[in-house]
């Protein structure tokens, strides 16, 4: 490993100041789980790392409001959310997702901010948070702004963050009875990156789907909402016919790429099948099987 | 995962052999006190970083080392020319002397070691290595084993067999070929029998290139000493390393000392000679200790398991008896032969399977290609063969409408009958293993075949293996004056539990507790010769040597008692015996054991031999699986592995060897594959090369050792480390056909392969890409 500078500022504002927006080899590091792998494999050689580890403790804290909205600082560890009763109650889909996201050692170290800034399209949390309607707060030299997760991911390892801008927090709105589910589909081993991720979130009244969000990840370049599939569900009665229509629409619209986890035609079939399965899973309590 | 244990096996009279002795080293391992070669740091030690070839086949025009050498902290940049100042003929290998210590004017695969950067700091060496520029004149390359066998792209100019093997002599100096060994077996008249057969079946099967993935990557440290050289190395074959280094340096063996620690896995990757020659040459070149340690990623460029193509053809009579079989096997050896030619022959001769077939024609060829070299990997080629012949066997049974187990039963090779080589089977519980496997899986019972998108199926497969022969093991048992016992053997415990098993043999013979026996780590200055820890040979060969050594010590103790005038069976404690003899706590009794089995080399023209192996290993697998018909995902819900291991020395260790071997082969069956693009491995990391995790393992795994005795083995035992690899792959493929009616003929069995096969069978093939 080639030597580099490491700064450990005591405040978030200082961290923002220490990052040189002109220098792509100067970057933030939070949990370091992704950063260390990039450095070891030579993909990234930093001249300077600004660790967020020692910033104010509020960045490592989170709250769940009485109606079930989550506010989390960027330095909150995934494991903290995983073990929180309040998070589990407000977002059962998160409780279901964490156990398949890497392993307990990584989850205890990896942070919300690092996870969302990394923008590897195979990651499990981005599609789920996107389906839940989350947004982040980005803080840079000229202040803070919010970015919806639907706007955050721009490409492989690419986000809408400006150079010098950091993720400072995450907000997930109260779900108000929406039903959600995530399906991680691997094709080589259980701990592999997914060949496809499908996250869904649905508002239902009686037996009817009022509104649907369907997000695909891993098989596509960035986590992507499937608007045609969502439209196919809007106003439809809960049931296999609607699910299959959504699966077909997603399979038709998804821009799937080939890689070692499967060819594009095969992964398109995975989309077709797993959209249906994710919908069934989300609505299992509603009598869908 | 749940694992059901073996049957109760006999405990020997002194209560040591046959007991579930916990592994002697487990406490040190789980508390982090185990001393691995990786932890070794020597004063003044340099770290080596290897610069690797970026082309699959090319002439080296120039190596620009100046920029790297100028990096502060770099000691030197070493090329083959520098190595030659220490070792004028820098070519090594167990079967062929074909592999240069560093590329010698030419590279033959992507990842081949071209030169080395040395520094006191591994990070500096690493960074500087990236500054070395190598100019190549690229040459056409060949990757496929069948194509390479007749290609006019030649990986080597001439063949250079090592000379240690008489059956390779005829290849000396041969030009214009990639075929490094052509083994042929001719029994009866296969062509004539095919003409008479009621049915003839022919199929092609392939396997992919995979890697051993030991969790301790390869490491060797060379240290110049006042008398010569010490090599600390994570090696499965310290004796071989010493002999090969002595040959390269033209030194007597006793100037070279090779020491090993416990290994963090080996599986055949750390056999013969790998990094040792480089570490030794660098140490002698610089006059300083040099550490050559690979990363996990670099292991993909070092040694692998052969990809294969196997064309198999059988003639069957109207009763379902196989009357003729022809086997053509191509082994993709990669750029250097390593032990590939031995795999080709010593495993190749079993390619017709554990069946009683009168007419067999078999060709098995080792082929050079421009891929990373292939060598021994748990099973020594057998899993590739069983994959083909047991898939084929099932296809025949289905083709003639016979139950697959019944068909096997009808053709199975029984004790007293000759194997295709002519060797008469003995102590080979093949029928017993088949029957127990069928019984445990409930083959004759009703079976839930699933509904809707989940279809269920069952499959069974059986294979066998000969022991590589003839090989020698020597052991020393030292009884100290207080009666404590020490075993000196060069068997390397790489996690298989050999230290414990060998201690049990000593303890049983000398009637002392196993837990009190000290087993000395292999050190060629201290522990005697052993061919290598490979091919499940240690229990049998070293076990016999250890037993002889312990018996020799026991006899010497008895002689000592007699010399002192003590009545026979006086049972005087050993410490008092020494005291009586020497007047104080002093002296030793040293027992020596040396073992080599009898053997007859196969005839060059016919491949026949009436004594081709000292023992046979047998393993069968049965599985129950579920196929997701919408995605092709296969879930193995239950796996039964049954082996003939003779009489287990330590049933608990046998159980873990059976389940461990099966899980390893399960990874090679379902997910592992080195992806190659123009000779470049594109997934050379554990992030992209997927071995099974605990979540992938069948929820129900059952292991059994059938009641059996290897009469020539120590306490009736024989090898166990590989037998459960044999049947795994074809059992799963057979179960898939049982479930959804499609046949997979290439490994790995990915969900996509299954799904595509199902779509093709339904006449709605999925587009290609
Ligand atoms: C063994 C292993 C297995 C894994 N398996 C999975 C899996 O199954 N599923 C899955 O989804 N993920 C998986 N991951 C990825 C894991 O989720 C990420 O590594 C982790 O979430 C990154 O968080 P971090 O805090 O460690 O980020 P870091 O490594 O600290 O940073 C990652 C990137 O984000 C930048 N960054 C960090 N913090 C901020 C910030 N506040 N604002 C802006 N940029 C920032 C860094 O500069 C860097 O580019 C795995 C990782 C490992 C090591």
UniProtKB/TrEMBL annotation, chain A:
GO MF entry, a single one: oxidoreductase activity
Record-linked Pfam families: CO_deh_flav_C, FAD_binding_5
Entry keyword Oxidoreductase: yes
Taxonomic placement: Bacteria, Pseudomonadati, Pseudomonadota, Alphaproteobacteria, Hyphomicrobiales
Keyword vocabulary terms for this entry: FAD, Flavoprotein, Oxidoreductase
Boundaries of every FAD-binding PCMH-type domain copy: 1-177
PANTHER family: XANTHINE DEHYDROGENASE SUBUNIT C-RELATED
PROSITE patterns in alphabetical order: FAD_PCMH
Transferase as UniProt keyword: no
UniProt name for this protein: Xanthine dehydrogenase family protein subunit M
